[in-house]
Amino acid sequence: MAGSGNTGITRWIKALGFTWLGLKATYKHEEAFRQEVWLLAVSTPIALWFGDSGIEKALLIGSVLLLLIVELLNSAIEAVVDRFGGEHHELSGRAKDMGSAAVFVAMMNTAIVWLFVLWP
């Protein structure tokens, strides 16, 4: 929105609108994102119940939110790569593989956080 002339509250309202459009588009077009949103919906009450402290609750919920953030970025990378055509290019494949790897690392982070926080 640089150079749009929007400032102050108008800028914030428009940015919120674009955010909502991005979330809706990702939810509509990306199965993995839908699954992770439902994971957040299920895991948040569990985290609030089993987390002993505010820090533990924040770690549990935050690790799933981080997974959603990485999935959003991966989906954006895939959309941009796909926008430039269907022909195979080594760099396009590499970018998509790297985005997928980032999601995998975020998943491992989520699993490790939940394991360490909840394991007796």
Describe the structure.
Helix content is 84%, strand content 0%. It is mostly helical and 120 residues long. It has a single domain (31-118), classed as Orthogonal Bundle (Helix Hairpins), CATH 1.10.287.
Summarize the structure.
The chain is mainly α and 120 residues long. The chain contains four helices and no strands. The chain crosses the membrane at residues 58-77, 98-119.
Label this structure with key terms.
flat, 120 residues, Helix Hairpins, mainly alpha
**Biggest sheet, in brief?**
none
CATH topology: Helix Hairpins
User: Rg to the nearest angstrom?
Assistant: 18 Å
Q: What's the rounded overall pLDDT mean?
A: 94
Give the overall form. flat
Do you know the CATH architecture? Answer: Orthogonal Bundle
Number of domains: 1
Distance between the termini: 48 Å
The CATH class assignment is Mainly Alpha
